[in-house]
Amino acid sequence: MHTLILSSNEEDIKKAALIIKNGGIVAMPTETVYGLAADALNGDAVKKIFAAKGRPADNPLIVHISDISQIYPLVREFPKKAQLLAEKFWPGPLTVILPKSDIIPDEVSAGLDTVAIRFPSHKTAQKLISLSSPLAAPSANLSGSPSPTALRHVCDDMNGRIDAIIDGGDCDVGVESTVITLASDVPRLLRPGGVTAEQISGVIGKTEIDKAVTNPLADGERVSSPGMKYKHYSPKAEVILLDGTDKDFYEFVNRPTDRNIVVLCYEEDKEKIILPCISIGKKHDYGEQAHKLFSALRKADENGFSVVYARCPEKTGVGLAVYNRMIRAAGFNIISLGSVNQQ
Ligand code: TXA
Ligand code: MG
To answer: Does residue 175 form part of some domain?
Structure first.
């Protein structure tokens, strides 16, 4: 299949909308990561997304809207807490899970009784939705790889597999939206993102953080969000997280080695490390780290490294989103440095 590369001007967005109306699939920029979009109400079109990504059929998709009123036909209920979150954080990087209406095809909800809804703030995504329909869109990467935050990443994964890609430059947030379910008794955060757990509980009060956000699943454990059980965000290189003080970290990464290692580090670390480094931003700037993380993981592969040592991120604010992506990229492989350095 030939993949058309489109720009973000009105004429090209109209072309993309026509492709979608005709049942095709188009990668579009959003403020979080690039998404791979199809008409959310066309089950056959949505199936093409799963085929292009190699995505397991039991992993449901987020439906993207461009106006709050579009939510009503998609859900059975729009409870007060969801309305408060929508007023405060939409358009923006927040996805809410609600009981679904009958017009949501099974392909989108993967057979669940709920649907995930998001109103992105990216103008190109909004325009495309308003010219076509609510759009089902997962991240536009091959299943399991780091999500794409630049046109080049989408081309690397999807060229020849989808109808078109709209170039929207680099994505601002850099990690996928925060996902919260309001289909449970107590609201529960299923995936941390640009809207933080602290901001959410500031608006709706008590909010749980699902155990799977920071912990591996036990064998056979039931998950609230099917995406939690799959390997995620992984470059080809082996990722190892290093947990410890600055001193422990420098001591560990500066040990002699004959392995082909790159270190994902903070800006402040660079001159203290002998191995090649990729900086993901300043130590306490979690927003910058989120923005750079996925492109740094892809860069490790592009430059042919076989091992990535990465600093274990902080777990507050947007740092929790960075931590959640990193531990998955590392397959929960964390070395606690205090004890290792004494050996
Ligand atoms: O920022 C984002 O959310 C991006 C952009 C393109 O909008 N999209 C994205 O989609 O990250 P995806 O499919 O890569 O991740 C959606 C996550 C998956 O882990 C999926 O299992 C979960 O949301 N999800 C979707 N619908 C759900 C539902 N009804 N119940 C529980 N989890 C759901
Ligand atoms: Mg994804």
So the answer is: yes
Same domain, 196 and 286: no
**Is the domain of 73 the same as that of 164?**
yes
Domain end marker among 176, 198, 213: 213
pLDDT band at 341 (very low <50, low <70, confident <90, very high): low
Q: Are residues 11 and 130 in the same domain?
A: yes
How much distance in Å is there from the Cα of 134 to the middle of ligand 1?
15
- 116 Cβ closer than 6 Å to some ligand 1 atom: yes
Is the CB of residue 61 below 6 angstroms from any atom belonging to ligand 1? yes
CATH of the domain at 292: 3.40.50.11030
**Long-range contacts of the stretch 255-262 (C-beta < 8 A, 24+):** 259/306, 259/307, 260/304, 260/305, 260/306, 260/307, 261/305, 261/306, 261/307, 261/308, 261/309, 262/237, 262/300, 262/303, 262/305, 262/307, 262/308, 262/309
Using only C-alpha atoms, the chain has a radius of gyration, in whole angstroms, of 20
Residue 129 CA to ligand 1 centre (angstroms): 17
pTM of the complete model: 0.96
The finding on whether 115 has its CB within 6 A of some atom of ligand 1 is yes
pLDDT value for 343: 59
- Nearest-CA residue for atom 20 of ligand 1: 227
Could you tell me the residue range of the domain that residue 258 belongs to?
238-341
Atom number, ligand 1, closest to the C-alpha of residue 55: 13
Sole residue written with tokens 């531990």: 327
- Which tens digit of pLDDT belongs to each residue from 177-213? 999 999 988 999 999 999 999 999 999 999 999 999 9
Mutate to test the pocket of ligand 1, among 90, 225, 293, 328 (most ligand atoms within 8 A of CB): 225
Domain count, the chain: 2
269 and 196 assigned to the same domain: no
Q: In the predicted model, is pLDDT for residue 229 greater than 80?
A: no
Which amino acid makes up residue 129? I
Each residue's pLDDT tens digit, 52-78: 999 999 999 999 999 999 999 999 999
Query: Is 232 domain-assigned?
Result: no
Whether residues 188 and 251 share a domain: the answer is no
